[in-house]
Structure formats: structure tokens, C-alpha cells
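Continuing from the previous page of notes. For each protein in this section, the sequence appears first, followed by its C-alpha cells. Read the first protein now.
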Amino acid sequence: MNQKELKELIDFLIEKDIAEFELERGDVKVRIKRAVNAHAPVASYAAPVASHPAATGYSAPPVVSVPAPAEPPAAPDEGLHVVKSPIVGTFYESPAPGSLPFVKPGDKVAAGQVLCIIEAMKLMNEIESDMAGEIIKRLVSNGQPVEYGQPLFAIRPSNK
């Protein structure tokens, strides 16, 4: 696989929004993995390595690594309270598939009101608001894996 073919493959994967791809042809292995929010892929290319290039008449190209540019995290608006995930798991916006979400941007919430569910080890954990206010933004997608401490919602506190 030459550089032109590799570039065409990367462009195709970006166009189709494919995050990870691996191809093996004989001794040649190509693996392309890109960050979900970034537009630049991370690619690695490995070719057969001979014990001595003169032995086979083939010199293996070096492994190429193209790092994706780091995007700065979006700064939360001043005065917004961020509700973070207390556990690692899968985020769900509603109590059951097909039902209405617990909350959506623009909704007023009270302290203790359920905002979402995070499934961890087959247990459904209700995540409650720790303050009253208005939901400004949901920061994760339905069904998305979340990490401990990951921001879930931005809430504008109510003036009481």
C-alpha cells in the first residue's frame, strides 16, 4: 500500500465517519484510529521487516504515526453548575427505551429530581440534581459510556 492509497483510505474513513479501521494483506498491516470529535486520524502502518534489507531486496518503511490535534475542552459558561457522573457506566436519558427523557434543556429542575440513569454492572443508578435551576445543556449522548467525574449536565442555578 503506497502513500496515495493510504491517504485515499483515510479520506474515505473521514467521509463515512468511521472511527477505527484495520486491514491486513499478507505481511502488511494498516490500522487507522481517530478521535471521535477530531477530524485528523491517527494512523499506523507496518510492513514486513526482514532481518536484513539486502536479504530480501525490500526495505520496510518506518511506522508512521499522525497524532490528532488536541482540542481544548469547551469552557462552561460563567455561573453554571455542572452535574458530574458519580460512577463509570452508560448514560441513559430516559427510564426505558422509547420513553420521554427525564429532563431536556430548558426544563426547570428541583434539588433531588432525577436527571438521568447511569447503568453500571447491570444496575440502574438514578442520578439526581444536587440543586434547583434550569437545565442549560446535556453534555453527553444517550447510550454513551461515561467516566467517573465526567460532566453530564450544565444547570443555571435558580435565584431563590
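Done with the first. The second protein uses the same format. Note its length before scrolling.
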Amino acid sequence: MVGATSNPGAGAASTLWREFAAARDPRLREELIQLYRPIAKKIAVRMYVVRRDNSVAFADYFQYACVGLVEAVDRFEPERPVLFETFATYRIRGAILNGLAKESELAAQRHYWAARAQERIESLKSRSGGAETSSNSLSELVEITVGLAFGVLLESRAEPADESPLANPYAAAELGEMVRRLRRVVEQLPERERSIIELHYYHHEAFQDIAARIGVTKGRVSQLHSRALGLMRAALQAEEKKARVTI
């Protein structure tokens, strides 16, 4: 039990470790976590001081540190000749680094999808140079909303899966059918428009990258993207009208 701690109150801590190792009592576990929280905070402070930027708050550093501390308490073997502080330091630092890596990944994903959404909005905005009426504004808003909705559906799986026990199988079936219809419409587009839709929505390429790939300007890609969504919308409306007449 000598390796459990190097704190001045080593005797009490060793007794706590011994009792916890024997019973794995949640109450004793919580006492150990609280006992060593200052270590987690100290490590969080040290890593926060040398941070590269201010994108992550200290509270998050400390939260990740506490996650590492809990893992350390759960996995520490007090009978080994290793101080808990030494063992926990590696766990806590690792938990902070893992948390920061996830934060960076999420931030990159948010930036990516925001950029893609902005491209789509810009491509669907009215390019008329005249005065904008409330009717035109509403029409433009409808076009943008429909275009973004198409984007969400095109990026969905052809067979949407919801494993929740409360999932609505009828809604899932309807969504799946809508995705399949939309993708069939994509296949009927003219070659250039189809290529842009597939590259942008299926392969997540930005307009700038598509422009370089097919040898046109980014503005032209934006125009073709807007035209493609318009053709898709018209095709779906024609399908609906035909279905109503048949019924």
C-alpha cells in the first residue's frame, strides 16, 4: 500500500485505498475522487496556461481533467509500487489532450458544414438587380429553404436507419422513399448538373474544388447548382401532379 500516495495524509489515503480496493464501494470511490481533485485542477491549470488559443474555456480543461481522474481512480492498483499521483498524471493529461482533439474535430466539422450551407444559400439567392419586393423576398426564401432541404435529403442514406425503440416506422419509410425519389431525379439531370450535385452532396466537395475539377469558375458552378435544384424541384412537382391525376 506504500505506493498509493505521497501526500502528507498518506496514512488516511492508504486506508481509503485499501478499503476501496476490497469493496469497490461507490461512496469510497467518490471520496477518492474528491481527495485528488486538486491534482486534476493543477494539471488543468498548467495545460491551460500554455494553450495555443482561447477556443476552449478553462472549465472544459478542468472537466476533461476530472474525467481522467475518475478513470485513474477506477484503474489504479494500489498494491503496485507506483504512486497514485504519478499514475493519475498520465491519465489526466491524456484525457485533456483527447478532449481538446475532439473539440478541434467538432470545430472543423462545424466550420465545414457552415461553409457548405453558405455556398448553397449564395447559389440560390436572387440575382435580379432591380428593387426587391416583399413577394420576391418570400419567393427567394422559399427557394433557399427548399434547396437546403434537398441538401439534407441528398446527404442522407438511401435507407435511413433509426434504431430508437420509439422510432416511427411509417415516418422512416416515407423519408426513405423521398430520398430514393430525389436520387432518381438526380440521375435524370443533364450531365454537368448531375455531376455537380453528386460531387457536392455525395462526395462533399466544395464549389471551388468542383470548379477546378471541371474547368469552370466557382460562380458558374454556383449557377449550375441552382439550376440543378430548380430542375429537381420541377421534376418532383411533375411527379406529384401525375400521381394526383392517376388517382
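What the second structure shows: Residues 84-124 form the longest helix (41 residues). The radius of gyration is 29 Å. We return to this in next week's lecture.
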